[in-house]
Amino acid sequence: MNRLQLLENWVAQQFPGKPFVLRPASADASFRRYFRIQVGHESWIAMDAPPVQENCAPFIHVAQLLADAVHVPEICAQDTSQGFLLLSDLGNLTYLQALTEQPETASRLYGEATDALINMQLTQILENLPAYDEKLLRYELDLFPAWYIACHLRIELNDKQQAVLEQVFACILQNNLAQPRVFVHRDYHSRNLMVSEPNPGILDFQDAVVGPVTYDLVSLFKDAYIQWEEEQILDWAIRYWEKARRAGIPVQQDFGDFYRDFEWMGVQRHIKVLGIFARLAYRDGKQAYLDDMPVVMQYLRKACERYRELNCLLNLLDELNNCNPEQKVGYTF
């Protein structure tokens, strides 16, 4: 029996004697799939997380951890042996759709998203969350040479280029690991935020960790799927920083120092995301992620231009582009 039939049978058990309609709601970069269940005038979301590839336990744990702080789906029923969860429905309007169709709402929506972010960062019960430690941060950086350079660009780094990458990675990690640590959602961006009441509804939090205070803000403002002018990002970052200081979040007391941390955290994330997008394309056959690379590369290049310690990475990106000009290393001009 296939997964869809198993899911339909399980949903039928949750609504005995009631007719229902089950339709695809969304899929994400993992093996998880989501379906909207309509029963009369009410709707729920069913998560299908195949146990061989996915583990529902972190989702359940983090949902319970955040339930009193922010708007996350309520877990209405669960069968972890089969990998099924029945969740409350937070609606079908993502931040990405709302911001694309009505960009004039951006300041209000991002203001509410940073309020929710601060509420998450105030979470004190962190003992059972993984650490965003050097091992994990380094693993993510290594996705870039393994998947972006080797698979996407089809280039093998020489010893000198490898040494440059090692030097830059060491600088990035030094900054990231020195930042204050808080609850980190890890994918806090426009595809995982729903326009809802209360706003926002927050999804895809199962990979939460304890890590650098600027990480989720980078995910939110330097989003791979929608781009804003740097002046606008700076303004929103200042507004977050002011609210975070008032709330007692351990941000740097000087905004210039905070923004430098924000940008260096962004460099780590952009390097990781380029590797992940390449892996999704070449390992998992999700070619659409290649179209999202140019925005991420633009973020990375601009940060490298601003910081002397990162200039050598910018030079390396130029070298790689010259070696493989047809890929253009994701430039946007």
Shape: globular
Total domain units: 2
> Roughly what fraction of the amino acids lie in strands?
5-15%
Please give the number of β-strands. Answer: 9
Oligomer: single chain
Spatial separation of the terminal alpha carbons: 50 Å
Low-confidence stretches: 329-333
What is the top-level CATH class of the largest domain?
Answer: Alpha Beta
Sheet with most strands: 5 strands, antiparallel
CATH fold descriptor of the largest domain: Aminoglycoside 3'-phosphotransferase, Chain: A, domain 2
Characterise the protein shown here:
InterPro entries: Aminoglycoside_PTrfase (IPR002575), Kinase-like_dom_sf (IPR011009). This is Aminoglycoside phosphotransferase domain-containing protein. GO terms for molecular function: ATP binding. With about 325 residues, this protein is an alpha+beta fold. The protein folds into two domains: about 5-90, Phosphorylase Kinase, domain 1, CATH 3.30.200; about 95-330, Aminoglycoside 3'-phosphotransferase, Chain: A, domain 2, CATH 3.90.1200. The protein contains eleven helices and nine strands. The protein has helices spanning about 5-15, 55-65, 95-100, 105-120, 135-150, 160-180, 215-220, 230-245, 255-280, 295-305, 310-325, and strands at about 20-25, 35-40, 40-50, 75-80, 85-90, 180-185, 195, 200, 210. The strands form three sheets. The chain has a five-stranded antiparallel β-sheet, covered by helices on one side. A two-stranded antiparallel ribbon has the order 6-9. The longest helix has 28 residues, at about 255-280. It is globular. The chain starts with a helix and ends in a 10-residue tail after the last helix. Residues about 330-333 have low confidence and may be disordered.
